[in-house]
């Protein structure tokens, strides 16, 4: 497509490149592949990340051959297993009398980016520039940083598909974005109180949707023909985002296995990260990726954008300079697991 409150310490110690995250060390962002031996036989799940929130630690798991992240806290179940403890580098689970530990791998080699380079500071700042200031549908480069200042209020207009599931998936992702950004984000029950509209309508009814929301922008329908889903936000004269519309055809998205991907990508882009690029990886901001959830790399970009030191209307070069300066602090809250003690 489109000041952060530090209420939690995000510790993503991701142990797999094929999930939603990259672990961050003091000098680079590195994806760790988890050897098969790290998955205890018979458990059917792999530990992919740990988020340390004071008093409410969170563990992230993945089932083999799946790209969907399972998030759970102490006392919750993952399959037949109950989480007993979440530590910085491991999770203790129980099932009856059985006890198992899942550890984050620290033995695997770094996984390199698409051109063979480790995701260094330079690459992260480059990716932030690509995603925040460029646009996949135009050749221009934005002069000023764009982000929300006012509270974000989302209304779901479900015209086709499973409305309950659409609402559940959307609400889950909005909670995630609110935690990452520290911004006021919530859903509303009436369109009159919304500044973001998410429309779920099958392909056959999209012409009516475009007439309703994009009558002054006929090119949007042409873009939809090339995309599975799309979104567009509007800004005021101060480069503050003041509204957005997201369109997701559930039939088209489901046929391509992209329903969750569409919800996550389009809503995230309405924050002020409008661009997709094949150069940005590992990331959901990449049309060639198979990720269906935010990666650790994506979380860093979001946290950068909504850091209070970056403000709407900030000139591009100044924003990139400040982003580079604060990156170690942003990245310092996303640290890799070291060897088990």
Would you mind describing this structure in some detail?
With 341 residues, the chain is α/β, with parallel strands linked by helices. It has a domain at 121-321: Collagenase (Catalytic Domain), CATH 3.40.390.10. The chain is built from 8 helices and 16 strands. The strands form 4 sheets. Strands 11, 12, 13, 14, 15 and 16 form a 6-stranded mixed β-sheet that branches. α2 packs parallel to α6 and α7 crosses α8. The longest helix is centred in the middle third of the chain and has 19 residues, at 163-181.
Task: Give the tags.
8 helices; disordered C terminus; alpha/beta; single chain; four-stranded antiparallel sheet; globular; 341 residues; Collagenase (Catalytic Domain)
